[in-house]
């Protein structure tokens, strides 16, 4: 007969403020199989855990039920107490009488107490039938993958590399750097963005433990924590990067032009181009989508011979390249190439995009003088399309009145209800930098609220007011296009309780930060979830901010939610530290709460195989017939196969039939 110990927690007043804890404890004492029933103010405290350990050592209990808060956060603590007391830690069940009871029935103490008794009875019914389970371990591949080469990905990769682990850094663009490389300066110190980022990019590019896989994307991921098999597709650059010196001669001679993504479409680049001047690696790419195939010569064909010179007629980019890195005669595979790598952990740092201004018809998005804040960054940058001069895109003239509009798509029921966190500060930064350079320029800034919670941020905002920048609290209702591409701003000033109308030469929209649509495919590949704001969902907002629901995969930077550069770097280093833990340990634990096929009962019908969300089940021959086999390294114990099996041949350890039926019987008694 089982000897179950029941321990009821007050949880301060979280539980005891609603539920009669003594009544629940006394009720537990009357249940079959219960040997001990106790209570404590905080069962998770040292004294509470010691109570459990001592009862185990004294031989009073051989199964444990704790009636307290959520097992999501506290189950490991109590399992640890069982192990310390000398009992198998899986002989434990938790009754959540806080989240599922006292918090949701705060207005009905009597009903909440009755429910607590039912939850305890159910937990005892299962606990009495629990069986000892043993953990297994698998070795770890001591290498890591970082997806995304922005500031978050770079710092995560560097931290892992400095710890001695081989690290693959995958970036979809031809160079690492991300959005931070596009910025002019960073708030609140006004540091030159390129000056502080470029050395870190170079360090990552030169680190012996980092392998840069730029112009590449993750195609497929299989496996589990400690042993991920990853396929990375390197897009075809149509340039031999082993030979390319990054001189840029091909770009100078290329006749084909297309909007430059790095300059946010404010200027053109060539079809043969280098991503930006400080690119790492500094290698050329030929964009075949915009290449004119000069001379009508297709890829993979030999050049024609000139009748005059007797020499091959080469394309301008081929002819210009002093390193012979561009050769259109080669049979280039347009789909690029696949590289397979094995890693133990993965850090996802895929960053963000800003909303397209086309979503906001009331803001005259087709007008050239309505730009996004990221376009403004390129306009005022020394490496931007105007060399840092503030010129209107429509006529290259200096504006006289400049308008900033905040929360375009953020804090908006029609688009995104969340705050993008950095918009207020980068608008203030841009306004201050412009005002310093052009003191006579009239600048208006329209905010719902100014949010400046970071270190020295409020002082930075106050400084903007002292510079004579007009800061108005209230929304902009829309923009009217006037002759000459000027704009009339229609707004409201909440402080003056009056409408505001004025003409502006240039309007900057602080559009919301959001996940790029392409990350949805990556989420499916990695088994990641999305939060309510459509960013990647962390395991727990407070206790697991860099972990995900998929073990071994971690989050860093703005893919997890909007944040500024200091917070991004902090989280990147935290994600790297978390990703390094299993690599340092050298092996990972396989939880025993997984499914197991009872081969003699299996009919080989295969119903379970396509249902498994983790691809953990396959059919294999057994006694000349197919039988289901479960890969324990892949199984996550979800129980889908157990529920679906028509032969009742699959057992989910920790949730076996007699245990579940005992719970149900206790609830319906």
TrEMBL record:
Q: Which Pfam families match?
A: FAD_oxidored, Fer4, Fer4_7
Q: Which SUPFAM superfamilies match?
A: 4Fe-4S ferredoxins, FAD/NAD(P)-binding domain
The cofactors required by this protein are: FAD
Keyword Iron among record annotations: yes
- This protein is called Cob--com heterodisulfide reductase subunit a
Q: Does the keyword Iron apply?
A: yes
Supply the EC number(s): 1.8.98.1
One MF term in the entry's GO annotations: 4 iron, 4 sulfur cluster binding
Name all 4Fe-4S ferredoxin-type domain ranges: 235-265, 593-622, 626-655
Concerning its family, UniProt says:
Belongs to the HdrA family.
Keywords attached to this Swiss-Prot or TrEMBL record, sorted alphabetically, are: 4Fe-4S, FAD, Flavoprotein, Iron, Iron-sulfur, Metal-binding, Oxidoreductase
InterPro entries named in the record: 4Fe4S_Fe-S-bd, 4Fe4S_Fe_S_CS, FAD/NAD-bd_sf, HdrA-like
């Amino acid at each position: 007969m089982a000897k179950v110990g029941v321990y009821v927690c007050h949880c301060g007043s979280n539980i005891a403020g609603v539920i009669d804890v003594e009544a629940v404890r006394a009720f537990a004492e009357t249940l079959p199989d219960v040997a001990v029933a106790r209570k404590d103010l905080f069962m998770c405290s040292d004294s509470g855990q010691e109570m459990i350990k001592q009862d185990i050592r004294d031989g009073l209990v051989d199964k444990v039920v704790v009636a307290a808060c959520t097992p999501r956060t506290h189950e490991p603590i109590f399992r640890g107490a069982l192990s310390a007391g000398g009992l198998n830690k899986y002989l434990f069940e938790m009754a959540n009488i806080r989240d599922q009871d006292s918090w949701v029935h705060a207005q009905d103490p009597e009903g909440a107490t009755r429910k607590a008794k039912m939850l305890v009875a159910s937990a005892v019914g299962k606990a009495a039938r629990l069986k000892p389970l043993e953990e297994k371990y698998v070795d770890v591949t001591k290498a890591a993958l970082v997806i995304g080469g922005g500031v978050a990905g770079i710092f995560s990769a560097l931290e892992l590399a400095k710890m001695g682990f081989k690290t693959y850094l995958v970036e979809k663009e031809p160079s690492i750097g991300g959005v931070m490389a596009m910025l002019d300066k960073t708030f609140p110190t006004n540091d030159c963005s390129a000056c502080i980022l470029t050395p870190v990019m170079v360090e990552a590019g030169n680190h012996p433990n980092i392998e840069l896989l730029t112009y590449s994307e993750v195609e497929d991921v299989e496996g589990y924590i400690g042993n991920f098999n990853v396929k990375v597709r390197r897009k075809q650059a149509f340039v031999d990067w082993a030979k390319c010196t990054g001189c840029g001669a091909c770009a100078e001679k290329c006749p084909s032009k297309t909007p430059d993504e790095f300059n946010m479409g404010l200027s053109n680049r060539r079809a043969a181009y280098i991503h930006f001047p400080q690119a790492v690696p500094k290698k050329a790419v030929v964009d075949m989508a915009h290449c004119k195939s000069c001379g009508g010569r297709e890829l993979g064909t030999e050049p024609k011979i000139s009748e005059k010179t007797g020499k091959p007629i080469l394309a301008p980019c081929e002819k210009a390249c002093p390193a012979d890195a561009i050769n259109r005669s080669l049979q280039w595979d347009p789909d690029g190439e696949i590289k397979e790598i094995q890693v133990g952990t993965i850090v996802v740092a895929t960053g963000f995009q800003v909303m397209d201004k086309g979503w906001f018809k009331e803001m005259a998005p087709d007008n050239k003088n309505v730009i996004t804040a990221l376009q403004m960054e390129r306009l005022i940058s020394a490496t931007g399309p105007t060399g840092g001069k503030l010129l209107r895109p429509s006529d290259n003239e200096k504006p006289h009145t400049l308008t900033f509009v905040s929360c375009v798509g953020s804090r908006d029921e029609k688009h995104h209800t969340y705050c993008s966190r950095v918009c207020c500060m980068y608008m203030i930064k841009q306004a201050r930098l412009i005002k310093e350079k052009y003191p006579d320029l009239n600048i208006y800034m329209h905010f719902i609220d100014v949010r400046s919670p970071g270190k020295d941020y409020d002082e930075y905002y106050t400084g903007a007011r002292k510079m004579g920048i007009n800061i108005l609290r209230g929304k902009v209702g829309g923009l009217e296009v006037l002759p000459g591409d000027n704009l009339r701003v229609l707004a409201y000033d909440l402080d003056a309780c009056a409408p505001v109308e004025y003409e502006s030469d240039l309007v900057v929209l602080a559009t919301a930060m959001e996940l790029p649509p392409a990350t949805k495919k990556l989420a499916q590949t990695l088994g990641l979830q999305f939060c309510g704001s459509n960013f990647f969902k962390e395991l727990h907002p407070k206790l697991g901010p860099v972990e995900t629901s998929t073990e071994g995969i971690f989050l860093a930077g703005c893919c997890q939610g909007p944040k500024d550069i200091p917070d991004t770097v902090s989280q990147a280093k935290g994600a790297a530290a978390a990703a390094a833990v299993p690599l340092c340990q050298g092996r990972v634990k396989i939880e025993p709460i997984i499914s197991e096929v009872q081969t003699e009962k299996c009919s080989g019908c295969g119903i379970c195989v396509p249902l498994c969300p983790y691809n953990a089940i396959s059919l294999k021959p057994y006694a000349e017939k197919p039988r289901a086999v479960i890969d324990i390294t892949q199984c996550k114990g979800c129980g889908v196969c157990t529920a679906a099996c028509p032969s009742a041949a699959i057992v989910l350890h920790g949730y076996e039939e007699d245990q579940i039926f005992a719970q149900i019987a206790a609830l319906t008694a």
